[in-house]
Design goal:
4 strands; two-stranded antiparallel ribbon; binds zinc ion; alpha+beta; 84 residues
């Protein structure tokens, strides 16, 4: 009998295919998120000199909700321009 064994491993640990696929999705999402985060957090408000605080929420599936804690509209506008 001919049989093919497929192994999925994450950091040396053997996992199920489902787990493996999920981890790939999470990794891609995590990488995209940290890029956005780095960009946003390097911003400074021209008036108050403060940087925004970014909150990312993952409600489920592949959705990510981003929210920003800002000191004023100017900083918010700067973020929107950056992310556009
Ligand atoms: Zn401000």
């Amino acid at each position: 009998m001919f049989r093919v064994d497929l192994e999925y491993r994450i950091a040396g640990r053997r996992v199920s295919q489902d787990e493996w696929v999920k981890s790939i999705v999470d990794e891609a999402r995590g990488a995209a998120l940290s890029q956005v985060q780095a960009k946003v957090e390097s911003l400074r408000c021209p008036d108050h000199g403060r940087s925004p605080r970014l909150t990312a929420q993952v409600p489920g599936g592949t959705d990510v909700n981003l929210s920003f804690d800002v000191c004023c509209e100017k900083l918010k506008d700067a973020i929107m321009r950056l992310l556009r």
